[in-house]
Every structure is written in C-alpha cells, then in structure tokens.
Amino acid sequence: MDDLRITLEEFKKGNINEDEVILRLKKKPFVDIGYASFDSHRSILQGNTEVIYGAGKTAEQIIGIVRTMLLNDEKHILITRLDDEKAKALVNESYLCDVTKYYPEARLAVVGGFKPCDTEGYIAIVTAGTSDIPVAEEAAITAEFLGNKVERIYDVGVAGLHRLLSHLDKIMAADVIIAIAGMEGALASVVGGLASCPVIAVPTSVGYGASFEGLSALLSMLNSCASGVSVVNIDNGFGAAYQAGMINHKRG
Questions:
Q1: 122-251: which CATH number, 3.40.50.1970, 3.90.700.10, 3.90.1150.10, 3.10.180.10?
Q2: Helices 215-222 & 187-194 angle (0-180, nearest 10)
Q3: pLDDT (tens digit, 9 = 90+) per residue, 131-160?
C-alpha cells in the first residue's frame, strides 16, 4: 500500500506520467520464485500484506519468501504455524536475527515488528480455559501485528461463570470480541448474549474423547442462539484475528 501511495504522490506532483503509473502497477502483481509466488498486490486489495503459512514449508522456503518480501519493500511480515526448528533457522539468518521475534506458544514469528496501532477501539480475546491460550495467543499477536489494541481475558469459562462476569465492563466496551473455547464451546453463546459488538467464535481441539478434536465445540458455536456470533475453523486464531482486525478498523 505504501508503494502505491508513493506512486500516486509522484504522479500528483508531475514527477511521473500516467503511462509510468500503469507500468508500475503492471510490473508488480506478484513475484515468482519457483516454489512460491509472492502476491505483492495483496495489501492493495485487502489492506494487509500476504501472511506466510509456515506449516508444510521448509525453513529454506520460508527464508526465501521472507527475503523476497523484504526486497519488495515489505516492512512487516507475519509467519504463522512455525515450529521451533524452523524458527531457529529463521532467526539465525544474519540479516534477520535482529528484526525477527518468535512467539513459541502462538507458533508465530514477526519480522520487522508490529504495524503501528491505528485504531481507538480494542479487540477483546476471551478464553474458556488456560488450555485455549495457545490459540488465543495466535489471535492476540496476529491482531496486534495488524495494528489493533488487544485486551486479553483468559480462563473465564462457563464452569465458573462469575469469573467472566467480573470482566463485564471490558467485554461490553470492546469493539470486537474473539471467544475461544473447546469442550462444548458454550462460551461463545454466553459472550454473545452479553456483548453489543460482533463476536467471532473459535472452537479449539481441547477436550475429552467426545469433543472429537474440536468438532463438538464447532457445531455448538455454529448453532449459537446468540445473535451476532460468527464462527471460524477449529484452532484458527489467525483467521479470527484477521476478521476482527478488519471489523475493528471499519468501526474505528
């Protein structure tokens, strides 16, 4: 997005003509590096740059994609589902060691730091239990990376409803809420019944046998009786945070 703004500013000042603007846009829709095609126009289309999904990629491939993004003037890069071994290889790269931070609990790495926070409102991230925190941290760090304020409210599930009610002021003042729960997934409906803002429910794979690795929570959340609750896939903290960030920026 910054490149586009610079190009438009140069056009307004008369430093380049219309043909040069069109040429620049044609030249940079994506960069093919063989095993990956970096979408350099993602930020123009969606407002945020492409995010690297680390699972299934080798450390060398991830490093190569990061290098390509940096060479194409991307200042802030997020890598999701990154294990310790790949993260170590990334951080050990000489040109990345000082600008890369790895968050092992969330399985995320950030190159170049978070984008500046540019919203007044905040995203509340609420978990049913401590076991849901890895998914919650994926959501929280993703949301912060995307320029949002985040309020963490952890371990307030319906097994002890008074814990949730003690945070009622924070819940009701939020601009978006991400409700994260495994087991039977009841937290999303309870939060949805208390909040006046959009609620994004994230089922987690936390639970005993009949939870079916999150399927039980997913179905419960999809059948929520509270209005204004949407649902993302099992353990998808990143997807919830991305959606929440889009809502938060529109509301702000």
A1: 3.40.50.1970
A2: 30
A3: 999 999 999 999 999 999 999 999 999 888
